[in-house]
Amino acid sequence: MSLDAVGSEQKTKAEPQPRSVRVVLLALMIAMLLAMLDNMIIGTAMPTIVGELGGLEHLSWVVTAYTLATAASTPIWGKVGDMYGRKKIFLLSIVIFLIGSALSGMAQDMGQLIGFRAVQGLGAGGLMVGVMAIIGDLIPPRERGKYQGMMAGVMALAMIGGPLVGGTITDHLGWRWSFYINLPLGAVALAMIVTVLHLPAVERTKNKIDYLGAALLTVGITSIVLVTTWGGTEYAWSSAVIMELIAIGVVTLVSFVYVQTKAPEPILPLHIFRNRNFSLMQVIGFLTGFVMFGAVLFLPLYQQSVQGASATNSGLLLLPMLLSMMVVSLFAGRVTTNTGKYKIFPIAGGALMVTGLFLLAQMDTGTSRLTSGVYMAVLGAGMGFLMQITMLVAQNSAEPKDMGVASSSTTLFRTLGSSFGVAIMGALFTSKVQEEMAARGGDAVTQQSAQLDAASLAKLPEAAREAYQIAVSSGTHVAFLLAGSVAVIGFVAAFFVKEVPLRGAGPEKADAGGKDASPSGGTKVAQSA
C-alpha cells in the first residue's frame, strides 16, 4: 500500500482515505504532540532541574532559548521545504529535535541545558510547519475538515497531560527523562514516515536560499520575542534594553520586507499576502494565539488563587475549555467537508470568543467553579471554530508550491500572537494586582511577584489572603477585558472573509493526472488495495 500525490497516472475517486494515509497522519500527530508537549512537561520539572544544576538566575532562558529558536526558524523551515522537498526536510527537523532532546537530557550545567534547548527548539520549528504542510499536500482542503478534531485533540492532550506527565516522570524517573521520553516517540514517527509517506519529487530550484532575508527575519523575530518575554519582568518596559530591542526589531523587519521584494527566492514571498483571505487568516490567527495562551496562563492562576484549586491538577482545570474546543473543531471540520462552506465559522468563532472573554472578565471571588467552567466552555467553542479553520483557509488561499510558506506564516503569526498576549495581559495583570494590594496595605506580599503559589498563599494571614484573592480577581478582570477587546478585531475581520471554493471539493471526478477537476487544482492521494 502506498501514497502517491499529484502526478500519479492512476485515476483517483473521492473515496475514504486509505489506511496508509491514516498511518501517516498518526505519525504526523505524534510529531505535533512532541512539539506541543515539550514546554508543558519541562515546566513541571524546572524546580528539580534548578535543584541539581543550579543557575537559578538563568532559569527563564531554558524556556526562552527554545521559544526563540522555534519562532525564528519556523518561516525558514517552511520555505526550505517548498524548495527542496517536504519529506526530507521534515525528517531532518525531527532528527534535530531528537538530538536536542538527547543532549538536553545529558546536560551537566545550566549553560549546556540552555544551548541544547536552543537546538531542540530549532527542530521544533520544523515539526509544526512540516505537519501542517504535509497534511496540505496529502489531503485536499475540502476533505481536511475530517481531521480537525484529531489535531484539536492532540492540542488538548498536550495541555492537559503535559503537567501531569511531567510531574510523574520527574518524581519517578528523574528530570532527565522529561527529555529522553521524546526519543522513543520520535523514533516511531521517523520509522512510520520513512516507510509509508511518499510525496512527489520536487524540482530543484536554481535559486539559492535567501540568506540575507533569513538573517534579517531571524533577528527581527528574536527581538520581538525578547521584548515580549523580558518586558515588565527582566526589564522595565521603558528601559534602554527594551527600547533598543524594539528599534532593532522594527529596522530589521522593515529591511526584511525590502529584501523580499528583490530576492529571486524570498523566504516569505510577499505576493501571498495579496490574497485577502490569506492576510485575514494571519490577523485572525494572531488574535487567536493572543487570546488562547493568555487564557491558558491566567485561568489556572485564578482557580488556584481564588477558588482554592490544587496546582497539581492545573491542567485538568482547563478541561471545559479544551473539550469544548475539541468537540466544536470536530463539528466544524465535518460540516466543512460535507458542505464546502466555512465563512460562518470564523464569524461564529469570533462572536463566541468575544462573549466568552467578557464573561470571564466578570469573575470575582464569589464565582463558582461551575460558572467559570461554563464561561471557559464558551471561550473554548469560539477557539474551536477558529483554530484549524485559519490554517485551512490560509492553505487554500496559497498555490501548492507555496504550501510550506503558507503553513509557516500562519504558525508564526499565531506564535507571535501568543507572545504578545502573554506579555501584555501579564503586564496588566501584575500592575492591577500590585495596585489593589497597595490599596489594601498588602503590597509587601507582592513586591517580588504578583503570582503566589498555593503553598505561599496558605501561609498568609487571613486578611492578607483575602486581599490577595480580591487583587487576583481584579487582575484577571482587566486581563480578560483587554483580551475581549482585542478579540473584537478578529470578529470584525471574519466578515471580510470571502468564501472561495475549497480545492478538492466534494465527489467530483479527478482527471487522469490525479488532480482535482477544479481550476484551482488540489492534491489527491492515490489509493491502492
TrEMBL record:
It is a multi-pass membrane protein. This is MFS transporter. The chain crosses the membrane at residues 21-46, 58-77, 89-108, 114-135, 147-165, 177-199, 211-230, 236-259, 280-302, 314-332, 344-361, 373-393, 478-497. The keyword Membrane applies. SUPFAM superfamilies: MFS general substrate transporter. InterPro entries: EmrB-like, MFS, MFS_dom, MFS_trans_sf. It is found in: Cell membrane. GO terms for molecular function: transmembrane transporter activity. Residues 24-502 form the Major facilitator superfamily (MFS) profile domain. PANTHER family: COMD (PTHR23501:SF197), MAJOR FACILITATOR SUPERFAMILY (PTHR23501). Belongs to the major facilitator superfamily. TCR/Tet family. It comes from the Bacteria. It comes from Streptomyces niveus (Streptomyces spheroides). One of its GO terms (cellular component) is plasma membrane. Pfam families: MFS_1. Residues 506-529 are annotated as: Disordered.
